[in-house]
Design a protein that fits this description.
The chain is α/β, with parallel strands linked by helices. The chain has helices at about 20-30, 40-55, 70-85, 105-135, 155-175, 195-200, 210-220, 230-240, and strands at about 10-15, 35-40, 60-65, 90, 140-145, 180-185, 190, 230, 250-255. It has 2 domains: about 10-190 and about 230-255, Rossmann fold, CATH 3.40.50.720; about 190-225. The protein binds NADPH dihydro-nicotinamide-adenine-dinucleotide phosphate. NADPH dihydro-nicotinamide-adenine-dinucleotide phosphate binds next to helix 1, strand 2, strand 5 and helix 6.
């Protein structure tokens, strides 16, 4: 299927690793120009150099900053406008989860988590809104989690924040229509750097990577019997972000191997 992304511009936040990087690659494969960001300049620059060698420097724009800095998002949007003439699809992916129960989440943790989850959407969306309105195919696609609908007690503030983000996105789908479509994906467990870090911090350091991940899938009762791959999330993101999903807005797509229990 032609997704209609050839020569369009896709912006991906958190594009130097995991799901974001797989999304950047997939959008490049579809013929788009791609701009992406992450905080760590070293990894970002290495990834950008590798992609430029593969797809051509003229199709790639990478800038190191935190999406939590509003002015940096605006500067990035200006750079994208200058380099590519505007943005057609914004994919808000940057972030990470926080493991903590109600008892061990401090007020400062709550503030940090709510800031990360809400403003990693709000700042990039505000910065790119005018460009997206100007595009004939403007879209925003957010990475969210099943935790929004199926909270986990060991990720109490992440779950609460993710529910709020779904509410924000639903409102935006109405407020920004008809110029900009707004959708989300809800992830279960996807093998990425986040899970690699948790694997490296495992209790039993003798357990192999394969066994640790198989064990995790069993404990979480994932019907498809494994974690997802970053590419599997990326394919869904790029589809929703593309003109091929032209009548889809206000929607959420689960990429979870069937682990959700809500209807
Ligand atoms: P990774 O750690 O592999 O990738 C996260 C990316 O986001 C990196 O490029 C990171 O680079 C960047 N990033 C993190 N914080 C910021 C920030 N403040 N500003 C700009 N860039 C940032 O993790 P995943 O691929 O797993 O995560 C992608 C998204 O998916 C995240 O939002 C995560 O919460 C969400 N998610 C993932 C799940 C999973 O099972 N993998 C489950 C549910 C949700 P750098 O650190 O250099 O900034």
């Amino acid at each position: 299927m032609d997704l209609g992304l050839k020569n369009r511009t896709v912006v991906v936040t958190g594009g130097s690793s995991g799901i974001g990087l797989a999304t950047v690659r997939h959008a490049l494969e579809e013929g788009a120009h791609v701009a992406f960001c992450a905080r760590g300049a070293e990894r970002l620059d290495a990834v950008a150099a590798e992609l430029a060698a593969e797809y051509g420097e003229g199709r790639i724009c990478a800038r190191a900053f935190s999406v939590l800095e509003p002015e940096a998002n605006v500067a990035f949007a200006d750079e994208v406008a200058e380099r590519f003439g505007g943005c057609d699809a914004l994919i808000t992916n940057a972030g990470q989860g926080r493991m903590s129960t109600y008892a061990d989440t401090t007020d400062s943790d709550w503030h940090d988590e709510l800031e990360l989850k809400f403003f990693s959407q709000i700042h990039p969306i505000r910065a790119f809104e005018a460009q997206l309105r100007h595009s004939p195919v403007g879209s925003i696609t957010a990475v969210n989690s099943l935790l929004a609908y199926q909270p986990e007690p060991h990720m109490v503030c992440t779950s609460a924040a993710r529910a709020g983000v779904q509410s924000l996105l639903k409102s935006l789908a109405t407020e920004l229509a008809p110029e900009i479509r707004v959708n989300s994906i809800l992830l279960g467990l996807v093998d990425s750097n986040q899970w690699q870090r948790r694997f490296e911090a495992r209790e039993d350091q003798t357990q192999s990577r394969e066994d640790w991940f198989a064990d995790l899938a069993r404990r979480k009762s994932i019907p498809l019997g494994r974690l997802g791959q970053a590419e599997e999330a990326a394919r869904a993101l790029v589809f929703l972000a593309s003109p091929a999903a032209s009548y889809v807005t206000g929607a959420r797509l689960e990429i979870s191997g069937g682990v959700s229990r809500f209807v």
